[in-house]
Amino acid sequence: MNASPDVSPSAPTVPPVTPSASGADPELLSVIIPLYNEEENVARLCEAVFGALRDMARPFEVIMVDDGSSDGTVARLETLAPSYPELTVVTFKRNVGQTAAIMAGIDHSHGAIIVPMDGDLQNDPRDIPILLEKMKEGYDVVSGWRKDRQDDALTRNFPSAVANWLISTISGVHLKDYGCTLKAYRREVLSGYRLYGEMHRFVPIYARWQGAKITEIPVRHHARTAGQSKYGLNRIFKVLLDLMVVKFLTQYETKPIYIFGGMGFLLFLGAILSAGGGIALRVIEGIHLNRTPLPLISAMCVITGMMCILLGLVAELLVRIYFESQDKTAYTVKTVIRGKGGKG
């Protein structure tokens, strides 16, 4: 009889591993799978994933993160764990979301290459070697594209196509399928920032922002055969709001005064135009200013413009505190080349 894994509260826990290339095993592949109420799929998932990975003849680990499931997913994992020595299971106390689950998997992983994938068997683990082979061409991120997607056209495929177009247009990073979880990353690409909300799908944008080389290749996609989809139309609105945050962070993280100050000056310009329009009406038409809303509009533009500039100054202070307290820089070094006499 297989011994059950130690999941008691007193058992020693593995400390989270900060996503850093320096402490990663260069040969190890880390596959991260977030799970939520996948009791019916988890046994077949383990069989498919471990079967595909063991055929690669490469050291690997699989981190499955249970995102506060309310069914028997964790119990099934406890039963299956002894049969898979490469498996690590991380469980949350409550449901937090897919992005947090992926982040926890990254924190508990040790490989130089990280591959997240969905736990509903719609992603095919047999595509992982294809992603890694493409990565050998010098890419830092290889993103999966569900070219023949097996989802409902109206409720899933069409909204996804619209979201992908918006994300590509606004971010300038053109991918056909941001929503495909199956991607391969070099660990250093994931260093230096944390993921929140629904931002796991925007990692390629952050990666490109840091100078990473990105490509996209078609991958297989299967219809869900068990369990229920956790995605709804409400997620589209969350994605769009997160996209606004990403756009701000990627362009104005180090100089927020540019966006707030720009808004302030536009409002000041509006105040000048309103005042000028009021004066013109008084001189040309003889209309008294108190009979028009222009003085009120002008005053509101001035006040709001001042508030925007003050917000920009506060944001500048916060950015400086952030970089200095975290010992971070506003740049990312790729390589340093020195001559024979170089020092340091």
Automatic annotation (TrEMBL):
The lineage of its organism: Bacteria, Pseudomonadati, Pseudomonadota, Alphaproteobacteria, Rhodospirillales. Its EC number is 2.4.1.83. Gene3D superfamilies: Spore Coat Polysaccharide Biosynthesis Protein SpsA, Chain A (3.90.550.10). Residues 1-11 have a biased composition (Low complexity). Keywords: Cell membrane, Glycosyltransferase, Lipopolysaccharide biosynthesis, Membrane, Transferase, Transmembrane, Transmembrane helix. Residues 1-22 are annotated as: Disordered. The chain crosses the membrane at residues 257-284, 296-319. One of its GO terms (cellular component) is plasma membrane. InterPro entries: Glyco_trans_2-like, Glycosyltransferase_2, Nucleotide-diphossugar_trans. PANTHER family: UNDECAPRENYL-PHOSPHATE 4-DEOXY-4-FORMAMIDO-L-ARABINOSE TRANSFERASE (PTHR48090:SF3), UNDECAPRENYL-PHOSPHATE 4-DEOXY-4-FORMAMIDO-L-ARABINOSE TRANSFERASE-RELATED (PTHR48090). GO terms for biological process: lipopolysaccharide biosynthetic process. This is Glycosyl transferase, family 2. Residues 30-190 form the Glycosyltransferase 2-like domain. GO terms for molecular function: dolichyl-phosphate beta-D-mannosyltransferase activity. It is an enzyme of class 2 (transferase). The keyword Iron does not apply.
